[in-house]
Amino acid sequence: MKFLKLMAFIFILFVLSSCQQEPEETEEIPEDLISDQEYMNVKSNLTVYDHIDGYEFDTGLFTTYKDDRYPSLSYVDVEAFLSLLSPGMNEYTLEKGESLTISAVLYGEDETEIFDVYRLSIDPTLNVLIYDDFNFYQALSKPGYTSYTTDLVMTEFESTDTYPGITIDLNQYDMDILYSEGSYYIPLELANLILTSYSLNVYQMGDGLYIVDDETTLLELIDKALIESTEADLPLIDFTYHFSALLFDYFYGLKDFQRVTSYLDKFEDKELDQKSTFVSFDNAFFNEVLLMDDLHTQILDFGLDRDDVTLTVFPTAYSRIREYFDAYVKHCELYETQDFTWTDKGDYYLLELNAFTNDLKDQLETTLGEAEPGKPIYIDLTCNAGGYIISAIELLAYMTNDPITITYKNATTGVIYH
After folding, report:
1. Nearest CA to 304 among 387, 254, 239?
2. C or N: which end of the chain has fewer Cβ atoms within 10 Å?
3. How far apart are alpha carbons 36 and 69 in whole angstroms?
4. What confidence tens digit (pLDDT) does each residue in 102-116 have?
Protein backbone atom coordinates (compact mmCIF):
# COMPACT_ATOMS: atom_id res chain seq x y z
CA MET A 1 0.00 0.00 0.00
CA LYS A 2 1.31 3.44 -0.86
CA PHE A 3 1.46 5.96 1.90
CA LEU A 4 0.05 9.41 1.69
CA LYS A 5 2.00 12.48 2.63
CA LEU A 6 2.55 12.87 6.35
CA MET A 7 1.79 16.39 7.53
CA ALA A 8 2.75 17.82 10.92
CA PHE A 9 0.40 20.27 12.56
CA ILE A 10 1.41 20.79 16.15
CA PHE A 11 -1.82 21.45 17.96
CA ILE A 12 -2.00 19.90 21.41
CA LEU A 13 -4.96 20.40 23.71
CA PHE A 14 -5.10 18.91 27.17
CA VAL A 15 -8.54 17.97 28.42
CA LEU A 16 -9.85 16.10 31.41
CA SER A 17 -10.26 12.41 30.83
CA SER A 18 -12.75 9.75 31.85
CA CYS A 19 -12.52 5.98 31.73
CA GLN A 20 -13.55 4.47 28.41
CA GLN A 21 -16.22 1.85 28.73
CA GLU A 22 -17.79 -0.23 26.02
CA PRO A 23 -19.79 2.34 24.04
CA GLU A 24 -23.53 2.24 24.26
CA GLU A 25 -25.08 1.45 20.92
CA THR A 26 -28.58 2.18 19.65
CA GLU A 27 -29.50 0.53 16.39
CA GLU A 28 -32.35 1.37 14.08
CA ILE A 29 -31.31 0.65 10.48
CA PRO A 30 -33.68 1.98 7.80
CA GLU A 31 -34.50 -0.55 5.15
CA ASP A 32 -33.89 1.91 2.32
CA LEU A 33 -30.18 2.44 3.02
CA ILE A 34 -28.34 1.50 -0.17
CA SER A 35 -25.86 -1.30 0.45
CA ASP A 36 -22.38 -1.42 -1.07
CA GLN A 37 -21.96 -5.06 -0.11
CA GLU A 38 -21.61 -6.35 -3.67
CA TYR A 39 -18.51 -4.21 -4.20
CA MET A 40 -16.77 -4.93 -0.90
CA ASN A 41 -14.20 -7.54 0.04
CA VAL A 42 -11.56 -8.03 2.73
CA LYS A 43 -8.33 -6.37 1.66
CA SER A 44 -5.84 -7.06 4.48
CA ASN A 45 -5.52 -8.36 8.01
CA LEU A 46 -2.99 -6.01 9.55
CA THR A 47 -0.95 -6.58 12.70
CA VAL A 48 -1.51 -3.73 15.18
CA TYR A 49 1.58 -2.20 16.80
CA ASP A 50 1.10 -0.06 19.91
CA HIS A 51 3.75 2.68 20.26
CA ILE A 52 1.99 4.74 22.94
CA ASP A 53 2.94 4.65 26.62
CA GLY A 54 0.14 4.72 29.15
CA TYR A 55 -2.65 3.13 27.10
CA GLU A 56 -2.96 -0.50 26.10
CA PHE A 57 -4.39 -1.13 22.65
CA ASP A 58 -5.36 -4.52 21.26
CA THR A 59 -2.32 -5.67 19.28
CA GLY A 60 -4.06 -8.46 17.40
CA LEU A 61 -5.18 -8.32 13.78
CA PHE A 62 -7.21 -5.49 12.28
CA THR A 63 -9.16 -5.99 9.06
CA THR A 64 -9.25 -3.48 6.22
CA TYR A 65 -11.55 -3.67 3.23
CA LYS A 66 -11.55 -2.69 -0.40
CA ASP A 67 -14.21 -1.45 -2.75
CA ASP A 68 -13.88 -2.96 -6.22
CA ARG A 69 -14.62 0.48 -7.66
CA TYR A 70 -11.63 1.96 -5.77
CA PRO A 71 -9.28 -1.03 -5.32
CA SER A 72 -6.24 1.06 -4.35
CA LEU A 73 -7.83 2.37 -1.14
CA SER A 74 -8.09 0.67 2.25
CA TYR A 75 -11.42 1.09 4.04
CA VAL A 76 -12.07 0.54 7.75
CA ASP A 77 -15.22 -0.34 9.66
CA VAL A 78 -15.88 2.83 11.69
CA GLU A 79 -17.09 0.95 14.78
CA ALA A 80 -14.13 -1.43 14.73
CA PHE A 81 -11.71 1.45 14.28
CA LEU A 82 -13.19 3.36 17.23
CA SER A 83 -13.16 0.21 19.35
CA LEU A 84 -9.48 -0.33 18.58
CA LEU A 85 -8.62 3.20 19.74
CA SER A 86 -11.08 3.38 22.63
CA PRO A 87 -8.44 2.96 25.38
CA GLY A 88 -6.95 6.30 24.27
CA MET A 89 -10.26 8.15 23.97
CA ASN A 90 -12.85 9.54 26.31
CA GLU A 91 -16.20 7.82 26.61
CA TYR A 92 -18.44 7.92 23.54
CA THR A 93 -21.74 6.41 22.43
CA LEU A 94 -22.96 5.23 19.02
CA GLU A 95 -26.38 5.52 17.43
CA LYS A 96 -27.32 3.89 14.14
CA GLY A 97 -30.02 5.17 11.83
CA GLU A 98 -29.81 6.82 8.45
CA SER A 99 -26.34 7.74 9.65
CA LEU A 100 -23.88 6.56 12.29
CA THR A 101 -23.77 9.16 15.05
CA ILE A 102 -20.87 9.35 17.52
CA SER A 103 -21.58 11.33 20.70
CA ALA A 104 -18.85 12.48 23.09
CA VAL A 105 -19.34 14.22 26.44
CA LEU A 106 -17.25 17.18 27.58
CA TYR A 107 -16.94 16.77 31.34
CA GLY A 108 -15.90 19.26 34.00
CA GLU A 109 -13.76 18.50 37.02
CA ASP A 110 -15.31 15.04 37.29
CA GLU A 111 -17.96 13.01 35.49
CA THR A 112 -20.75 14.52 37.58
CA GLU A 113 -20.44 17.87 35.77
CA ILE A 114 -21.29 17.86 32.06
CA PHE A 115 -20.46 20.97 30.05
CA ASP A 116 -21.74 19.76 26.69
CA VAL A 117 -22.32 16.80 24.37
CA TYR A 118 -20.89 16.92 20.85
CA ARG A 119 -21.91 14.72 17.92
CA LEU A 120 -20.45 13.64 14.60
CA SER A 121 -22.82 11.93 12.13
CA ILE A 122 -21.47 9.87 9.23
CA ASP A 123 -24.15 9.77 6.53
CA PRO A 124 -23.60 7.21 3.72
CA THR A 125 -26.65 8.31 1.71
CA LEU A 126 -25.75 11.99 1.38
CA ASN A 127 -22.04 11.16 1.72
CA VAL A 128 -21.47 13.87 4.29
CA LEU A 129 -19.94 14.37 7.74
CA ILE A 130 -22.20 16.41 10.03
CA TYR A 131 -20.76 18.04 13.16
CA ASP A 132 -23.17 19.72 15.56
CA ASP A 133 -20.06 21.43 16.95
CA PHE A 134 -16.56 21.29 15.49
CA ASN A 135 -15.28 21.24 19.07
CA PHE A 136 -16.19 17.54 18.99
CA TYR A 137 -12.55 16.48 19.31
CA GLN A 138 -12.00 18.22 22.65
CA ALA A 139 -14.63 15.96 24.16
CA LEU A 140 -13.27 12.83 22.44
CA SER A 141 -9.62 13.38 23.36
CA LYS A 142 -7.72 12.08 26.34
CA PRO A 143 -4.39 13.71 27.23
CA GLY A 144 -1.53 12.54 25.05
CA TYR A 145 0.76 12.17 28.05
CA THR A 146 -0.70 9.96 30.76
CA SER A 147 2.21 10.51 33.15
CA TYR A 148 1.51 14.25 33.38
CA THR A 149 -0.45 15.33 36.45
CA THR A 150 -1.79 18.79 37.22
CA ASP A 151 -3.79 20.57 39.89
CA LEU A 152 -5.50 22.70 37.25
CA VAL A 153 -9.20 22.01 36.67
CA MET A 154 -11.71 23.34 34.15
CA THR A 155 -14.49 25.03 36.11
CA GLU A 156 -16.51 26.69 33.32
CA PHE A 157 -16.94 26.32 29.59
CA GLU A 158 -18.95 28.30 27.06
CA SER A 159 -19.04 29.27 23.38
CA THR A 160 -20.17 32.40 21.55
CA ASP A 161 -22.44 30.62 19.07
CA THR A 162 -25.68 28.71 19.60
CA TYR A 163 -25.14 26.58 16.48
CA PRO A 164 -21.44 26.08 15.78
CA GLY A 165 -22.01 23.07 13.51
CA ILE A 166 -20.56 22.29 10.11
CA THR A 167 -21.25 19.83 7.29
CA ILE A 168 -18.44 18.44 5.13
CA ASP A 169 -19.55 17.22 1.72
CA LEU A 170 -17.21 14.37 0.80
CA ASN A 171 -18.55 14.31 -2.77
CA GLN A 172 -16.46 17.40 -3.46
CA TYR A 173 -13.34 15.45 -2.49
CA ASP A 174 -14.15 12.25 -4.42
CA MET A 175 -14.48 10.19 -1.22
CA ASP A 176 -17.24 7.73 -0.43
CA ILE A 177 -18.80 6.50 2.79
CA LEU A 178 -19.74 2.86 2.29
CA TYR A 179 -22.51 0.90 3.99
CA SER A 180 -22.94 -2.86 4.25
CA GLU A 181 -25.00 -5.04 6.60
CA GLY A 182 -25.33 -2.49 9.38
CA SER A 183 -21.71 -1.28 9.23
CA TYR A 184 -20.26 1.99 7.95
CA TYR A 185 -16.89 2.22 6.18
CA ILE A 186 -14.55 5.10 5.32
CA PRO A 187 -10.99 5.25 3.93
CA LEU A 188 -8.28 4.57 6.51
CA GLU A 189 -6.68 7.98 5.95
CA LEU A 190 -10.01 9.71 6.54
CA ALA A 191 -10.55 7.66 9.71
CA ASN A 192 -7.13 8.76 10.94
CA LEU A 193 -8.20 12.36 10.36
CA ILE A 194 -11.71 12.41 11.85
CA LEU A 195 -11.81 9.55 14.40
CA THR A 196 -8.50 9.65 16.27
CA SER A 197 -8.99 12.67 18.57
CA TYR A 198 -6.17 15.20 19.09
CA SER A 199 -3.63 12.80 20.57
CA LEU A 200 -3.63 9.65 18.42
CA ASN A 201 -2.47 8.82 14.91
CA VAL A 202 -2.79 5.56 12.99
CA TYR A 203 -0.72 4.67 9.92
CA GLN A 204 -0.45 1.58 7.76
CA MET A 205 3.04 0.54 6.74
CA GLY A 206 3.40 -2.79 4.98
CA ASP A 207 1.35 -5.39 6.84
CA GLY A 208 1.31 -3.35 10.05
CA LEU A 209 -1.03 -0.77 11.54
CA TYR A 210 0.91 1.56 13.84
CA ILE A 211 -0.64 3.62 16.64
CA VAL A 212 1.53 6.58 17.64
CA ASP A 213 1.15 9.86 19.50
CA ASP A 214 4.38 11.73 18.83
CA GLU A 215 6.32 12.91 15.81
CA THR A 216 9.68 11.42 16.84
CA THR A 217 8.34 7.87 17.09
CA LEU A 218 6.53 8.23 13.77
CA LEU A 219 9.69 9.36 11.97
CA GLU A 220 11.69 6.49 13.48
CA LEU A 221 9.09 4.00 12.24
CA ILE A 222 9.01 5.53 8.77
CA ASP A 223 12.80 5.48 8.56
CA LYS A 224 12.86 1.73 9.28
CA ALA A 225 9.88 0.85 7.09
CA LEU A 226 10.11 -0.59 3.62
CA ILE A 227 7.78 1.72 1.73
CA GLU A 228 6.74 0.12 -1.50
CA SER A 229 3.57 -0.46 -3.49
CA THR A 230 1.84 -2.95 -5.72
CA GLU A 231 -0.91 -0.43 -6.49
CA ALA A 232 -1.16 1.86 -9.50
CA ASP A 233 0.23 5.36 -8.99
CA LEU A 234 -2.54 7.51 -10.47
CA PRO A 235 -5.46 6.49 -8.19
CA LEU A 236 -3.34 7.11 -5.10
CA ILE A 237 -2.02 10.41 -6.38
CA ASP A 238 -5.60 11.46 -7.08
CA PHE A 239 -6.66 10.44 -3.56
CA THR A 240 -3.68 12.26 -2.03
CA TYR A 241 -4.63 15.39 -3.97
CA HIS A 242 -8.25 15.32 -2.77
CA PHE A 243 -7.40 14.25 0.78
CA SER A 244 -4.86 17.07 1.13
CA ALA A 245 -7.45 19.59 -0.06
CA LEU A 246 -9.95 18.30 2.54
CA LEU A 247 -7.30 18.46 5.25
CA PHE A 248 -6.37 22.05 4.45
CA ASP A 249 -9.96 23.19 3.93
CA TYR A 250 -11.29 22.02 7.32
CA PHE A 251 -8.47 20.91 9.64
CA TYR A 252 -5.60 23.26 8.84
CA GLY A 253 -6.85 26.44 10.51
CA LEU A 254 -5.15 29.07 8.33
CA LYS A 255 -7.32 28.97 5.21
CA ASP A 256 -8.83 32.41 5.81
CA PHE A 257 -5.46 33.84 6.82
CA GLN A 258 -4.02 32.52 3.56
CA ARG A 259 -7.05 34.01 1.73
CA VAL A 260 -7.99 30.70 0.19
CA THR A 261 -11.62 29.89 -0.66
CA SER A 262 -10.92 26.20 -1.20
CA TYR A 263 -7.69 24.27 -1.52
CA LEU A 264 -9.33 22.18 -4.21
CA ASP A 265 -9.30 25.28 -6.42
CA LYS A 266 -5.86 26.37 -5.26
CA PHE A 267 -4.27 22.97 -5.89
CA GLU A 268 -6.03 22.72 -9.25
CA ASP A 269 -4.67 26.15 -10.24
CA LYS A 270 -1.19 24.83 -9.45
CA GLU A 271 -1.95 21.68 -11.53
CA LEU A 272 -1.38 19.26 -8.68
CA ASP A 273 -4.22 17.21 -10.12
CA GLN A 274 -2.23 16.79 -13.34
CA LYS A 275 0.78 15.10 -11.78
CA SER A 276 1.36 11.53 -12.92
CA THR A 277 4.13 10.46 -10.53
CA PHE A 278 4.63 10.85 -6.81
CA VAL A 279 7.95 12.61 -7.38
CA SER A 280 6.37 15.34 -9.50
CA PHE A 281 3.46 15.62 -7.05
CA ASP A 282 5.84 15.81 -4.07
CA ASN A 283 7.86 18.64 -5.58
CA ALA A 284 4.76 20.63 -6.49
CA PHE A 285 3.14 20.00 -3.10
CA PHE A 286 6.30 20.97 -1.21
CA ASN A 287 6.39 24.23 -3.14
CA GLU A 288 2.81 25.01 -2.06
CA VAL A 289 3.61 24.24 1.59
CA LEU A 290 6.66 26.50 1.40
CA LEU A 291 4.59 29.35 -0.03
CA MET A 292 2.29 29.15 3.00
CA ASP A 293 5.25 30.55 4.96
CA ASP A 294 4.03 29.02 8.22
CA LEU A 295 6.42 27.73 10.87
CA HIS A 296 4.11 24.91 11.99
CA THR A 297 3.35 23.52 8.55
CA GLN A 298 5.86 21.04 7.22
CA ILE A 299 6.14 17.72 5.43
CA LEU A 300 7.57 15.08 7.74
CA ASP A 301 8.32 12.54 5.04
CA PHE A 302 7.55 12.11 1.35
CA GLY A 303 6.72 8.41 1.60
CA LEU A 304 6.85 6.42 -1.61
CA ASP A 305 9.72 7.34 -3.96
CA ARG A 306 11.06 9.75 -1.34
CA ASP A 307 14.69 9.09 -2.31
CA ASP A 308 13.95 10.42 -5.79
CA VAL A 309 12.52 13.73 -4.59
CA THR A 310 14.91 16.63 -5.22
CA LEU A 311 13.91 19.90 -3.63
CA THR A 312 14.70 22.87 -5.82
CA VAL A 313 12.73 25.58 -3.99
CA PHE A 314 13.75 27.05 -0.64
CA PRO A 315 12.48 29.87 1.61
CA THR A 316 13.14 33.33 0.19
CA ALA A 317 15.38 35.75 2.06
CA TYR A 318 12.44 37.79 3.39
CA SER A 319 10.03 34.99 4.22
CA ARG A 320 8.89 34.57 7.82
CA ILE A 321 10.42 31.08 7.93
CA ARG A 322 13.83 32.31 6.80
CA GLU A 323 13.80 35.33 9.11
CA TYR A 324 12.79 33.19 12.08
CA PHE A 325 15.49 30.55 11.59
CA ASP A 326 18.18 33.13 10.84
CA ALA A 327 17.34 35.01 14.05
CA TYR A 328 17.06 31.84 16.12
CA VAL A 329 20.44 30.52 14.97
CA LYS A 330 22.10 33.90 15.50
CA HIS A 331 20.70 34.72 18.94
CA CYS A 332 19.59 31.48 20.52
CA GLU A 333 20.81 28.16 19.16
CA LEU A 334 24.50 28.72 19.89
CA TYR A 335 24.05 30.34 23.31
CA GLU A 336 20.88 28.98 24.90
CA THR A 337 21.43 25.29 25.61
CA GLN A 338 18.99 24.88 28.51
CA ASP A 339 15.20 25.05 28.36
CA PHE A 340 15.01 26.28 31.97
CA THR A 341 17.52 28.54 33.71
CA TRP A 342 16.92 30.11 37.16
CA THR A 343 19.44 32.72 38.30
CA ASP A 344 19.60 34.78 41.48
CA LYS A 345 20.79 38.23 40.38
CA GLY A 346 20.88 39.66 43.90
CA ASP A 347 18.11 42.25 43.67
CA TYR A 348 15.93 40.03 41.50
CA TYR A 349 15.56 36.57 40.00
CA LEU A 350 15.87 35.86 36.29
CA LEU A 351 13.91 32.95 34.84
CA GLU A 352 14.91 32.11 31.26
CA LEU A 353 12.37 29.84 29.59
CA ASN A 354 13.40 28.64 26.17
CA ALA A 355 10.57 26.10 25.83
CA PHE A 356 7.31 25.19 27.53
CA THR A 357 8.16 21.58 28.31
CA ASN A 358 6.32 18.92 30.31
CA ASP A 359 8.97 19.35 33.03
CA LEU A 360 8.10 23.00 33.64
CA LYS A 361 5.51 22.34 36.37
CA ASP A 362 8.02 20.45 38.53
CA GLN A 363 10.78 22.97 37.81
CA LEU A 364 8.56 25.86 38.90
CA GLU A 365 7.58 24.08 42.11
CA THR A 366 11.24 23.56 43.00
CA THR A 367 12.53 27.06 42.21
CA LEU A 368 9.60 29.32 43.07
CA GLY A 369 8.97 27.38 46.25
CA GLU A 370 12.43 28.43 47.49
CA ALA A 371 12.32 32.01 46.18
CA GLU A 372 12.60 34.91 48.62
CA PRO A 373 9.15 36.47 49.13
CA GLY A 374 8.81 39.93 47.67
CA LYS A 375 11.88 39.70 45.43
CA PRO A 376 11.01 40.53 41.79
CA ILE A 377 11.12 37.75 39.18
CA TYR A 378 11.80 38.60 35.55
CA ILE A 379 10.81 36.03 32.92
CA ASP A 380 12.79 36.01 29.67
CA LEU A 381 10.99 34.37 26.73
CA THR A 382 13.31 35.76 24.06
CA CYS A 383 14.37 32.34 22.76
CA ASN A 384 11.19 30.46 23.60
CA ALA A 385 10.15 28.49 20.53
CA GLY A 386 6.85 27.31 22.05
CA GLY A 387 5.74 24.01 23.49
CA TYR A 388 2.78 22.70 25.45
CA ILE A 389 -0.20 24.91 26.23
CA ILE A 390 -0.71 23.30 29.62
CA SER A 391 2.82 24.31 30.67
CA ALA A 392 2.17 27.94 29.78
CA ILE A 393 -0.98 27.84 31.90
CA GLU A 394 0.98 26.32 34.81
CA LEU A 395 3.25 29.38 34.66
CA LEU A 396 0.29 31.78 34.56
CA ALA A 397 -1.17 30.10 37.65
CA TYR A 398 1.77 31.41 39.68
CA MET A 399 0.91 35.00 38.69
CA THR A 400 -2.65 35.14 40.01
CA ASN A 401 -5.00 33.47 42.46
CA ASP A 402 -7.96 34.24 40.21
CA PRO A 403 -9.37 31.81 37.63
CA ILE A 404 -7.52 31.98 34.32
CA THR A 405 -9.70 32.44 31.25
CA ILE A 406 -8.41 30.61 28.20
CA THR A 407 -9.99 31.77 24.95
CA TYR A 408 -9.52 30.09 21.60
CA LYS A 409 -11.14 30.33 18.21
CA ASN A 410 -12.01 27.48 15.89
CA ALA A 411 -10.61 28.80 12.64
CA THR A 412 -12.94 26.63 10.53
CA THR A 413 -16.24 27.73 12.08
CA GLY A 414 -15.19 31.05 13.59
CA VAL A 415 -16.70 30.05 16.94
CA ILE A 416 -14.93 31.38 20.04
CA TYR A 417 -14.71 29.20 23.15
CA HIS A 418 -13.93 30.30 26.74
Report:
1. 239
2. C
3. 10
4. 999 887 766 667 788
